[in-house]
Design goal:
Helix content: 25-40%
CATH topology: Rossmann fold
Order of helices and strands: EHEEEHEEHEHEHHEH
Number of helices: 7
Distance between the termini: 12 Å
Strand content: 15-25%
Number of domains: 1
Shape: globular
CATH superfamily: P-loop containing nucleotide triphosphate hydrolases
CATH architecture: 3-Layer(aba) Sandwich
Oligomer: single chain
Structural class: alpha/beta
Bound molecules: guanosine-5'-monophosphate
Number of strands: 9
């Protein structure tokens, strides 16, 4: 039986390309007891991305409706391009069941959640160094030069936000960072 008092909402944020998505994917695979929110987004799917699994891919009018109806816990325009938001209902249901919930969102979204749910645990995923962050950003190679510059500018601002968070985890090795994250997801430590 899940322990309702001990399950918590954990918000994972950090700079672009630090590996938030990879850490979340590791948790999804290794820790099925952790529920991970599926965001709505207006960006187009990348090859291999599945609607309802990686994101709910929606058009602009649908996203407008979600915002107007208060169906999103938070939302933001990320990298000056598409909109991304966390559907509110599933998060509330999962927490009511006593299951730990994880949001992998950008900094603007984390600030909104902080305003409405200050009891959540806010985790900053940091790169081992700025050089390493740049290497990861360029190494991914999925963006053109202008897009990369835009993302680096965002990353610089996002790094400065570390002090707003409850905990910092340095993402040197994905499994290590992911296990540190999971250990934070229960008040008083994970169940035996
Ligand atoms: P990508 O397009 O590479 O999948 O994600 C771009 C950025 O959007 C990442 O930094 C990711 O954390 C952020 N993001 C994904 N879902 C959400 C969401 O629901 N809300 C907010 N605020 N950011 C999100």
């Amino acid at each position: 039986m899940a322990d309702v008092d001990r399950a918590r909402l954990t918000v994972l944020a950090g700079p672009t390309a630090v590996g938030k998505g990879t850490v979340a994917a590791y948790v999804r695979e290794q820790h099925p007891e952790v529920w991970i929110s599926v965001s709505a987004t207006t960006r187009r799917p990348r090859p291999g991305e599945v609607d309802g699994v990686h994101y709910h891919f929606v058009d602009d009018p649908t996203f407008d409706t979600m915002v107007a109806e208060g169906a999103l816990l938070e939302w933001a325009v990320v990298h000056g391009a598409a909109r991304y938001g966390t559907p509110r209902g599933p998060v509330e249901e999962v927490l009511a069941e006593g299951r730990p919930a994880l949001l992998e969102i950008d900094l603007q979204g984390a600030r909104q959640v902080r305003a409405t749910m200050p009891e959540a645990c806010f985790v900053f995923l940091a790169p081992p160094s700025w050089e390493e962050l740049v290497r990861r950003l360029v190494g991914r190679g999925t963006e053109d030069a202008a897009e990369r510059e835009r993302r680096l500018a965002t990353a610089r601002e996002e790094l400065a936000a570390e002090r707003e968070f409850d905990v910092t985890i340095t993402n040197t090795e994905i499994p290590v960072a992911a296990e540190e994250l999971v250990a934070l997801m229960w008040r008083g430590g994970p169940p035996d």
